[in-house]
Design goal:
By secondary structure, the protein is mainly β. Helix content is 3%, strand content 64%.
Length: 808
């Protein structure tokens, strides 16, 4: 066998005897290990055009022959490593130039005035995050942010659009490094109306360090929007039309201008979407059977924008301003029908309740960021001052009509009108400082944040066309929160094989929730929260041998209750189903441990363990006041334990056929006992499999086949769901010197992405199922113009953590 390993060297010697004009060399990492199967591209120095691409073999050796004499530069790329570049390559006739050993280092070489376009791996596993590269994938066409998250490795989205990572709940959503200040239905609306065409990549940070906010048990998901890339001006326009049961379309435009002193950039998107959401439940409680059918139609249109200016004071200093905002107008119609019968005689219907909700929403949001940054490589200082305003108006009409068993004769009718505006203001001030110290890097910083949330819940009884204020169901809930944070962290390369990262963050929380009822007998005492929390983290990386590395990480995090789940008043879905918040929720605390193994810088395995105390979860239980009614509320579990594993692997099957495979599995254990006798003792093993295959086809076409299969598992505290899956197809072709990109896709072609499951808690057993507008065909056109290498400064703002718990 050892002689077989010499075969590539022998072949290379034979090639050299041919005296073809070309180059050869060997790729290694910093540990002198061979970098195998790396992409090696040769470009003309005259016009930066691609000349030829080859791959390194199992010894890291590459050879490119049959090249005309001239001047060239080379670029080698490998998943998980910085790009390697070699310039000033001059070839003469009949020479095989030996470049020797080329080493991938931790810092990449930058070439001035060179344009290089490379195909990114769909998933990259880096030391501190997993990167899901969305831009360029055909099957993302006509999709949206929430659908892309369903495809992301290690990410699960439940039937209420709640997001978890590696089986853990409590994920923070960011956009371009800035905390997304929405939760609940408003978050779902935002993600559903954020076109995939605006998204470049999704960063999944399952165990953030001390520099990041301690909020979010499962870590951070950062949705990075497309940005432009050197001096000059450019722009792009794109449009997508998507048809399922209903149609969606969007129009997006972006532009960028940059010179040595200033960079101006912006983008705007318009959208108009319609989609359906069907849910059915068959429940039993207190000897009563309730069969509920929900048919929802969601219609919405709006816009979003982002504009910024950076001014370069000098080589090391930049000041900037960033403005963002958007508007959403929507109408949600939910036809709710509930039949009631005795559990012992389910076929003998007692009565029928019809509650057809009509919901009108208008959401406005706007943010302002002022930024100063100094960076001379050895030291850096970043200062952010942020303000965000969020105005949500919701008006809902809900008639509750009782019919006899035939559903034809009206017995009684009660009509309610809800006016529930929410105003939220967020202010943050952030300072981050870094400098080289004792052969490593020291980071420290502070953050001050204030959130003021005013929530009105006004209910009216509509009688004879006139609205009468209902003081027993109405309230005003104001929530003010101040968080004072500071952190220190240190990273160091201990040796050629070992590196260390440690950090500590402290956060002082001072919050008050004030409920103002309109009747004295319904008044609740204010909620006062005042606590200091410490959040250590540590990470150790070991380069075991060439092509083999291990990483061990630990972190402690917190998840504060969202503002909307603290309000204790009832929000009626119909007269027999309502939801209410819990002002006595405790913040949940989680300890996360992760071990990661990487082979050949591209095959990744991660094993994770987390234990959460006071896990905040959504529960459904029978009402104490009406044996027919049930309510949704929020409670703390005693503890939740999750053990999970994840494997990801990019595979080149043929030169024209590349695949990516991701497999996740987890075991979850929920435990809780409540004073009223409610018990949660539930365990589940779940798994998911995601794959994408990309094919280079004749005539310039590119094809994709992608899909996932998710096994059974648990959502929230007690909802046990069954397996579901989806298969997608896509085709792409570029025209006009690659400036015009045409893509067509078909998603969930077998219509299996819906959900089915059962919830059992405290005497209520409910079987449910849901289907949504997942089966769609989409057509997308995008056109790029100008210099496509204009690069705007990518920066995150200071308002990141507290805003994400805003409710609508």
């Amino acid at each position: 066998m050892k002689y077989l390993s010499l075969l590539p060297l022998l072949l290379m010697g034979l090639f050299s005897q041919a005296q073809d004009t070309g180059i050869k060399g060997q790729l290694q990492d910093e540990s002198d290990g061979a970098v195998i199967f790396a992409n090696v591209a040769l470009y003309s120095s005259t016009d930066s055009s691609l000349v030829k691409v080859e791959s390194s073999n199992e010894l890291g050796i590459f050879q490119i022959v049959g090249i005309a004499p001239g001047n060239y530069f080379l670029k080698a790329t490998y998943v998980g490593m910085p790009d390697l570049t070699q310039s000033n390559i001059e070839l003469i006739n009949d020479e095989l130039l030996d470049l020797g050993v080329l080493t991938f280092t931790t810092t990449s070489t930058e070439l001035e005035a060179v344009t290089v376009t490379a195909q990114r791996a769909m998933v990259e596993v880096k030391p501190d995050r997993t990167v899901f590269n969305v831009q360029g994938t055909i099957n993302s066409v006509g999709s949206d942010a929430i659908s892309l998250l369903r495809m992301a490795p290690g990410v699960t989205v439940d039937n209420n659009d709640n997001i978890s990572v590696l089986g853990r709940n409590g994920v923070l959503l960011y956009v371009d490094g800035k905390r997304l200040p929405l939760t609940g239905q408003e978050l779902s609306n935002f993600l559903s109306n954020l076109p995939a065409e605006q998204i470049d990549r999704i960063d999944i940070i399952s165990n953030p360090g001390a520099k990041y906010e301690a909020e979010g048990n499962a870590g951070i998901i950062d949705i990075r929007l497309k940005r432009d890339k050197s001096h000059g001006a450019n722009g792009s326009v794109s449009s997508t039309y998507s048809k399922g049961r209903h149609a969606r379309y969007n129009l997006n435009g972006s532009g960028n201008f940059r010179n040595k002193r200033v960079n101006v950039f912006g983008n705007v998107g318009l959208y108009d979407n319609t989609f359906y959401n069907d849910m059915d439940f068959n429940s039993t409680q207190n000897g009563i059977q309730l069969v509920e059918r929900n048919r929802g139609i969601n219609e919405g249109d709006g816009y979003n924008f982002r504009a910024g200016l950076d001014y370069f004071i000098g080589k090391n200093q930049t000041v900037g301003v960033l403005l963002g905002g958007g508007n959403f107008n929507g109408n949600n119609t939910l036809n709710n029908r509930l039949t009631l019968a005795q559990e012992s005689m389910p076929d003998q219907i007692d009565s029928v309740l019809v509650a057809n909700n009509d919901d009108n929403r208008e959401n406005d949001q706007y943010t302002v960021n002022l930024n100063y940054r100094f960076d001379n490589r050895k030291q850096s200082l970043n200062i952010d001052l942020d303000y965000g305003g969020y105005r949500n108006e919701t008006r809902r009409i809900q008639p509750n009509s009782y019919f006899d068993a035939t559903g034809q004769t009206l017995l009684t009718e009660i009509i309610n009108f809800y006016d529930t505006p929410t105003d939220i203001d967020i202010y943050t001030f952030t300072v981050d400082y870094e400098q080289d110290l004792l052969g490593g890097r020291l980071s420290l910083g502070t953050k001050l944040s204030r959130v003021a949330s005013d929530n009105s819940f006004l209910v009216y009884d509509r009688i004879g066309g006139e609205d009468t204020f209902n003081d027993s169901l109405s309230n005003i809930f104001n929530y003010d929160e101040n968080v004072y944070a500071g952190y220190i962290s240190y990273t160091k390369q201990l040796s050629k094989k070992w590196s260390l990262a440690v950090g500590l963050r402290a956060e002082q929380t001072d919050a008050t929730g004030d409920l103002q009822a309109f009747r004295d007998d319904l008044q609740e005492p204010p909620v006062d929260l005042n606590y200091l929390s410490w959040f250590p983290n540590a990470g150790l990386t070991w380069q075991v041998a060439q092509m083999h590395s291990l990483a061990i990480n630990y972190g402690r995090r917190i998840n504060r209750p969202d503002y909307n789940v603290l309000n204790p008043f009832n929000n009626q879905l119909n007269q027999l189903s309502f939801e209410k918040g819990n002002p006595f929720l405790s913040p949940e605390i989680v300890n996360n441990f992760e071990i990661g193994y990487t082979y050949a810088y591209r095959y990744n395995f991660k094993l994770a363990y987390s234990k959460t105390t006071d896990q905040i979860t959504r529960l459904i239980a029978p009402s104490d006041e009406d044996p027919r009614a049930n309510f949704i509320t929020w409670e703390n579990l005693d503890e939740q334990t999750v053990i999970s594993a994840n494997i990801s692997a990019p595979v080149e099957i043929k030169k024209w056929w590349n695949a990516y495979i991701n497999v996740s599995a987890s075991r979850l254990d929920n435990q809780a006992r409540y004073p009223d006798g409610g018990v949660v003792d539930l365990q589940a093993f779940t798994y998911s499999f995601y794959q994408q295959h990309t094919f280079t086809l004749p005539k310039g076409f590119k094809g994709e086949i992608s899909g996932y299969f998710a096994g059974p598992g648990i959502w929230g505290g007690v909802f046990e769901y069954e397996s579901n899956w989806s298969l997608n197809l896509g085709l792409q072709r570029k025209f006009l010197q690659d400036q015009l990109n045409v893509r067509v896709s078909a998603n969930d072609i077998f219509f299996q992405a819906g959900w089915d499951g059962v919830s059992r808690f405290n005497g209520l057993e409910s079987f449910g199922s849901g289907r949504f507008d997942s089966r769609r065909v989409s057509l997308s056109l995008s056109y790029n113009f100008g210099n496509q290498n204009v690069k705007s400064r990518r920066r995150k703002t200071g308002m990141e953590a507290e805003a994400g718990r805003v409710s609508g």
